[in-house]
Amino acid sequence: MLLLIPAGTDDEARAYFTGILGMPEIPKPPSLAVRGGCWFQAGNQQLHVGSEPTFAPATRAHPALTTTQFDELRHRLEAAGYELTAGSVVDGRQQWFTTDPFGNRIEIVAQ
After folding, report:
1. Cα–Cα distance between 66 and 110 in angstroms, integer?
2. Virtual CA dihedral for 58, 44, 41, 3, nearest 10 degrees?
């Protein structure tokens, strides 16, 4: 999955995806690192966050991230000032939505 962020905001992305969501950053190949952006491990998947000079947030298309720390993650996001919107219970699992610092929609699903 690819999310776009404004050019020059890699550190803010790291603070959110690693600092708040707890996703470890994985190194980009040097040939791609010069473009900006960062990559994160999301279970068996990777979330690529790409730098875009003409950025517009993705308000509909979004990644769905599963977590075993559903309530803890909700509390961390709320403490950091992020709004949460309750979703449905899908296949017996709770979900809710938030945004990253750039306005991209993020779905959080209980594992």
Report:
1. 6
2. -10
Strand 38-42, strand 25-26: pairing: antiparallel
State the residue for tokens 């939505």: 97
Within 1-111, strands assigned E span 2-6, 25-26, 38-42, 45-52, 64-67, 85-90, 93-99, 105-110
Q: Among 98, 94, 95, which residue's Cα sits nearest to residue 83?
A: 98
The pLDDT of residue 90: 87
Q: Give the pLDDT of the chain (111 residues) as one tens digit per residue.
A: 899 999 999 999 999 999 999 999 999 999 999 999 999 999 899 999 999 999 999 999 999 999 999 999 999 999 999 999 998 898 999 999 999 999 999 999 998
DSSP strand pairing (93-99 vs 105-110): antiparallel
How open is the CA angle 80-82-88, to the nearest 5 degrees? 130
AA identity, residue 2:
L
3-state secondary structure of 97: strand
